[in-house]
Amino acid sequence: MGYPLVILLCVGLLHQHAWAVVMDKLAGDKICGDAECSYVLSMATALDDFIAPDCRFINIRKGQMVYVYSKLVPEEGAGVFWSGSVYSERYVDQMGIVGYFPATVVKETNKFTEDTVKIPTTAMDFYCV
């Protein structure tokens, strides 16, 4: 009689961790280097620390290099956010995690493309696990 309860508990715990949440959109459109936003637009250097307020964002430490993949087109009254991932030998655990950050906390150092496309954002752009 205890086994079914244990199995249900385990399934419930696994299911709880499999939840994903679609968060509010930060913008309706974004600028990318290609239609899939897979090309890096630019490299930037963090001017200051940024602590992610929720799962849509990434933490950035002053001095880190940031790969910029997209730039959200701000709506009236909204902040300017970019999407990217950090690069730092000191914080290897953060590398490869893509998220948003305020454009004001970085300075672009190298632009890799001037050819950009403007595409609509989707719910998947603001998906949190």
Automatic annotation (TrEMBL):
<keyword id="KW-0732">Signal</keyword>
<keyword id="KW-0728">SH3 domain</keyword>
<dbReference type="InterPro" id="IPR036028">
    <property type="entry name" value="SH3-like_dom_sf"/>
</dbReference>
<dbReference type="InterPro" id="IPR042801">
    <property type="entry name" value="OTOR"/>
</dbReference>
<dbReference type="GO" id="GO:0001502">
    <property type="term" value="P:cartilage condensation"/>
</dbReference>
<feature type="domain" description="SH3">
    <location>
        <begin position="39"/>
        <end position="111"/>
    </location>
</feature>
<protein>
    <submittedName>
        <fullName>Otoraplin</fullName>
    </submittedName>
</protein>
<feature type="signal peptide">
    <location>
        <begin position="1"/>
        <end position="20"/>
    </location>
</feature>
<dbReference type="Pfam" id="PF07653">
    <property type="entry name" value="SH3_2"/>
</dbReference>
<dbReference type="InterPro" id="IPR001452">
    <property type="entry name" value="SH3_domain"/>
</dbReference>
